[in-house]
Amino acid sequence: MIKSEKFLPWVADMPAYSLGRSYTDVADENRMSSESVVKLASNENPYGCSPLVKKFLKDGWDQLNRYPDSDCFELKKKLSEKNNVELNQIFLGNGSNEILDYIARVFLTSGRHAIYSRYCFAVYPLIVKATGAEAIVAEADESLGHDLNNFISSFLPSVSVIFIANPNNPTGTYLSFGEIKNFLQKIDSSVVVVLDEAYFEYSRQKENSAELVSLFPNLIITRSFSKAYGLAALRVGYAISSEKVIAYMNRVRQPFNINSIAQKAACIALEDNSFVKESVSRNDANKCYLEDCFREIGIPTIKSMGNFILANVRSFTLVNGREVPKAGTQLANYLLKTGVITRPVDNYNLYDWLRITVGTELENKIIVGALHKLKEHLS
Q1: Residues near 60 by Cβ (< 8 Å), separated by ≥ 6?
Q2: What is the CA radius of gyration of the chain?
Q3: Fewer CB within 10 Å: N-end or C-end of the chain?
Q4: Given this model, what pLDDT does residue 84 score?
Q5: Higher pLDDT, 320 or 220
Q6: 3-state secondary structure of 221
Q7: Which residues of 313-328 are buried (b: 16+ CB within 10 A; e: fewer)?
Q8: Higher pLDDT, 207 or 37
Q9: CA 290, CA 355: separation in Å to the nearest integer?
């Protein structure tokens, strides 16, 4: 038996990452087919991936006996051209989560601090704590988004990394290109600023944030193929930064961390801009539909620039005029019984809120119908 004192104290105190429910899990629990389950919990692209990628996957890969290109040359080349940066300014990861973990390992340790917002992406607190570093939590603004003035006022000399998700998960709030640039001008160049743009394509931002890297070599931009590109199952993410930062990150990167099929699929996905544009366009229309329907049945939402909505369900779930505890989880559990998976956000202490991924037209109608039925029952 391993003695408890052998475990690092900060790891022993860490909570595990809260995962959403799966199709098969919910189907088994409710004795229904997994095909009838609607998953609106993980902010995936409900329209799948590019038809070009599907064709590649259907045709198969006949080089499974060969290791992947550890340097991901072809994918880096396409990303460098797309973002107008050099190849040595790009880092590839097994999803952007792995990249965030590498950033923490390179820049954080016991005695150092990282700053993130009160309602930030749930991975930030975990990776900071895993290194033995300490967190400084900047209070959010009134829309639960990033208040950059609070980041600056919270600053200590021991701060090594600042995490900013834009658009932010789980709130969907967004900072403009100008706001980000103005913030970077106020931060000492010795402090790493991580701009997490997993939902960048959905934001419809005209400027490419990658152009800021030449002005601010302490900036690291992270992006994902799991959202708008629809490659969540293959786990591909990338970072853009200065040559020096990328070189240090490569020192801790495991070899062959992106498999060959994922590399090729990502390359093909980059060639199909029309699929991404159509996905974003349909997301915008369906998001407006959900926001309108939620408003109609008494559920306020925060304006989101992602492919999800954060909804306050406190008033909606009143029973005999009384509030119910953990309204978000209560509503999520009700929806699970109808075969609809959503995401409670209790882990952010947002007990009255529920995050809902924008689904297909049919999926959105299913959740709206389920909410109407519940409203009739509660009335």
Answers
A1: none
A2: 21
A3: N
A4: 97
A5: 220
A6: strand
A7: bbebbeeeeeeeeebb
A8: 207
A9: 12
Q: Measured between alpha carbons, how far is residue 316 from residues 40, 300, 311, 312 in Å?
A: 19, 9, 10, 8
Give CATH 3.90.1150.10 domain extents, the chain: 4-48+274-378
The band of 161, judged by pLDDT with boundaries at 50, 70 and 90, is: very high
Q: Exposure of 364 by Cβ count < 10 A (0-12 exposed, 13-18 middle, 19+ buried)?
A: buried
Range list for CATH 3.40.640.10 in the chain: 67-271
CA angle 139, 141, 147 (to 5 degrees): 70
- CB 38 within 8 Å of CB 341: yes
pLDDT of residue 328: 94
Q: What is the mean pLDDT of the chain?
A: 93
Question: Which of 226, 236, 162 lies closest to 200, judged by CA?
Answer: 226
Q: How far apart are CA 263 and CA 260, in angstroms?
A: 5
What CATH number does domain 4-48+274-378 carry, 1.10.10.10, 3.40.50.150, 3.20.20.70, 3.90.1150.10? 3.90.1150.10
379, pLDDT greater than 80: no
Query: What is the Cα–Cα distance from 323 to 152, expressed in whole angstroms?
Result: 37
What is d(CA 229, CA 113) in angstroms, rounded to the nearest whole number?
34
- Provide the CATH topology of domain 67-271: Aspartate Aminotransferase; domain 2 (3.40.640)
Q: What's the maximum distance between 2 C-alpha atoms anywhere in the chain?
A: 64
Nearest to 146 by CA among 171, 128, 181: 171
Contact 181, 206 (CB under 8 A): no
Q: Take residue 10 and report the two structure tokens written for it.
A: 């900060």
